[in-house]
Amino acid sequence: MDFYELATACADAIKEHRNEEYAIVSHMDADGISSCAILSTALDRMGVEHTYQCIKLNEIASVSPAENMLFADLGSGQQDLIRETFPSSRITIIDHHQFETSLFEHHFNPFCTGHDGGKEISGSGMAYFLSRALDPRNTDLSALAIVGAVGDMQSLWGRLEGLNRVIVEDGRRAGVLSADPDLLLYGRFTRPIFKSLQYFSDPPIPGISGSESNAIALLSQLGITLRGDDWRTPSDLTLAEKQVLGTEIIQRILHELPPEFVALAPSLVFGEAYTLVCEDRYSPLRDASEFSTCLNASGRHGCPEVGVEVAKGNRGVYYDKLMQLLARHRRRLARGIELVHARGIERLDHVQYFDGTGISDTLVGTIAGLLLGTPGCDPYTPLIGFTPSDDRTVKVSVRCSKLLVRRNLNMGCIVRVVSRKYGGTGGGHAFACGAFVPLEHITPFLADVSSEIGKARA
Ligand SMILES: [Mn+2]
Question: For labelling, which of 28, 101, 213, 458 has a CA lying 20 to 30 Å from the CA of 289?
Fold first, then answer.
């Protein structure tokens, strides 16, 4: 069976039982929330009664059973548990994570048909292809699939590829998405240009990253005005201004970029930006990456359903609530960064770390990512943050520059192996991953991670 045949087989099974009850169980990150919104919209359109919930990975066992269950952006790695916990439910798994063996007939995963779920499609992309198989008119849901893909960092090197590309083309044709060459600055529609510049950090722009006044000075020097009627955002720049600014950023980056990465410099600054063209001009939902931040904020502050409803197109009170969650998210991140600055970042041979006690275990990774590439933190050494998750367990989050992946460093593998050695669990991406480690083992854990990085570099 090829990819599209598998989508059709799973869709046909759902149609066959359309008069029964359904429960969608999805992951509570941006990709999972997008997946949930796509599936819920597709079921709504078919008139299928359903509930949904977005959960953490370790909460599967406490989900109540339903006649039909759709697991999204999770499940492939938890098939044994799902079979045990829901013996009399009809199960469909829609996921993109790697797994060992497939136990379910309706298991829609790119690895089943030779596609790479790490690079070319996310959970929301899989939910999209299933929805499209349910009804070809569902191509307007492609925009949400791109929000999930970007949230899962599949456009890390500036452009979505593989099956994600098919979704981008569907989105263009449906008139809901545009994909244009642009500066890879965060906050294209919502931030003053100098703020976007100040926060550009992978790799850091020497003298500019982390400094508002220097970012402002650079823009003036380049003749780029900061204000029109209001602060100008990156999206307000003319093409010529973008070229001038991009070229300047590349030149500055080159001063401190390790020589092996020099050829990559342009791809770190210029890439493809994904715009949800039906959203308002200066809305944080207009840029796929900012939309995914909003969804993440809803999940991390315990209200994923607010994200799901907004993603389904329900605005009004849900939108207001989502903006409140986003503001809370930003405040908590700023407070976390202050806390780490006060405590300091420590260093071992091949890793830097901070004690994040006091920071929520759902935010410590994001904070590590924000600290990397700021003054006081080496941009080319992985950074670990840890914080208690309960009385006996520590949540460990690791972030490193995406450039280190080009040195074949895979932090996801290292963290998985070392956490297992100490009776914990962990894994994730090569540049962003995490683990739960028993409290008493945190010191040797850090030392082992450092020596494993050293071995990988040797
Ligand atoms: Mn995912």
Answer: 213
